[in-house]
Structure formats: C-alpha cells, structure tokens
Amino acid sequence: MKTYRIGICGYGNLGRGVELALRQQPDMSLAAVFTRRDPASLSILTPNVPVLPLSDAPAHAKDIDVLILCGGSATDLPEQGPALARHFNTVDSFDTHAHIPDYFAALDAAAKEARHLSLLSVGWDPGLFSLLRLYAGAVLPDGRDYTFWGRGVSQGHSDAIRRVPGVADARQYTVPVPAAVEAVRRGENPDLATREKHTRECYVVLKPGADPAAVEKAIVEMPNYFADYDTTVHFVSQEELDRDHAGLPHGGFVLRSGATGENAEHKQLIEFALKLDSNPEFTASVLVAYARAVAKLAAEGQTGARSVFDVPPAYLSPRTGAELRRTLL
Fold first, then answer.
1. Minimal CA–CA distance to 177: which of 155, 156, 147, 202?
2. Cβ within 8 Å of residue 139, ≥6 positions away
3. Which residues of 102-122 are buried (b: 16+ CB within 10 A; e: fewer)?
4. Which residue from 2, 167, 243, 260 lies 20 to 30 Å from 160 (Cα-Cα)?
C-alpha cells in the first residue's frame, strides 16, 4: 500500500485535528508541520517530524504529496491558498460561502500554472453538506433545500470576531430556530429568511481599554458573518470563557423536502444530520480523507482547482474498488 506524505500548514485547533486524524489512516503519514509561530514553541504529537517556518515551506515541496491548509478563511486562506498552490497539491476548508467563486478562480489560476491540484472548501459545510444538497436535489427535483447549523461553535465566525480591534478572545455559537426546523420536517416548505433560520450568540473577551459599544457594532454589522442574523453579544471575562466555552461542539442538518407522483401527491423528506463533540477534529478528518483523493487525482495528472463535487467517492477510501463493492455496495 502506498503511503501518502502529508504536510500541515498551521497548527491551531484544526492543524492539531489533522495530526490526530492522520494517525488513524493506514496509508498516510505526517511529513512536516509549517507554522508562522516560532517552531521551537510548538510541541506536536508525532515524533521525528520537523516543525518548520512557513517561509521555508517551498524548499520542502518534494517531500510532501499534499499540504493541508489549516488557516482561517477571513484572511489566511485567500492569501495562502494561491501562494502555496504554486508549490504543493493542497486541500483547505475555506468556508466563506459568498466568496467561494472568487477564491476558486484565484486558486485555479495558481494551481494550473504550477501544474498542481488544489481542493477547496472541504469540511462538513461546505463539504459533506454540499454533497448531500447535490444528491438530494438530483433525487428530488421537485423540492426545496434547507440547511440548519448548530447549536455549536463556528470556528470561522469565532476567528472573525477575534480579528475585530479590541477583542482578546471569543466564541460564537450558531443556533437553529426550532420552529423553523419543525416546519420543514412537517413538509410545509416554508419560505424562511436568513434571520428566521438561525440566531448567533457571541461571547467576547475585551482587550483592556476597548470600547464595548464599538466592538459590538463591528460584530453585528460584519458582512458575510453577522449582518444578516439576529446577533447577541455577551461580554465575559477570560476566566468565564475558558470555564464555560472551552469545547468546540457543532453539528447541523441538511433537509430536502420534496414530492413525487403524477400530481406530486407523495411527500418525501431527505435528512442528513451531524452531531459533533469536536468540530475541528471532525473537519480535520474530512480534510485528511480528501487529501488522499487529491494525491490520487494528482498522480493521474489532474491540475487546477476542484471542489468536493469533482471528487469520485471511491478516491476518499484506502480500500480498492473491489473491496468497496464487496463490503459497502
């Protein structure tokens, strides 16, 4: 069995999750960790693996089959994705839905020029939930999609809050509106505005001297993250945040409510749900499975940017086609 050499770019919650996920895979090994921090300050779990400055990454391109990018979508990935695609095959979890087309175009241009393969927006949403929306819509063309997230901590939204001037630390919870979920499950096919589907709860630690009113205004008016939602901001101490909000749970539902029959007389409901104790560890596990697929596709000569829609499901597994047909089909 071929062993794929995987690099990690960024060693926060997601990067640590990738390292843990790699240890569960029979055909993958950690080759290196790249960081913007002082490498000597990091203590990773895997022995005899180098921790290197991110600026040194291009010099190690020949030692890595796929580099998994673990930075945030707000500012890290838009810069790092195209830059690193010039040196590596990459996988990332870019999750700013509104900016995916522009990010795809930038990534595609860089990867094609370098003859590398880059897979963007891999995780559970975007990612697995995106696939379920595609499958459900193809199966029930006469229907409507609904996606609900939470209740759980959104890493991307929490990261976006931490970048607001005056914020020392933060956690953001996405919360489904129960009445909206139940209306969909009853087959009512409601028209739901963004604010009617979710609320957002923010727990924020201020830096000394920060203006609470200015911070709250910056959060609730932030485009693509909070402006379209009913958002509540709670200011708490670092001690309270560490005590009550240390975990990173999440989850959600994808539903398609549709109908079949000559007169659409039969209601059909497709539902896919996730309940996660650790959002970053689960997202990391998805990234690692898709890194295997990227390695296989790159070995076949594919270049440019791709999304999860373009990846054959069998390429996610270490099993052969024959084993998959015998055990899962």
1. 147
2. 256, 270
3. ebbebbbebbeebebbbbbbb
4. 243
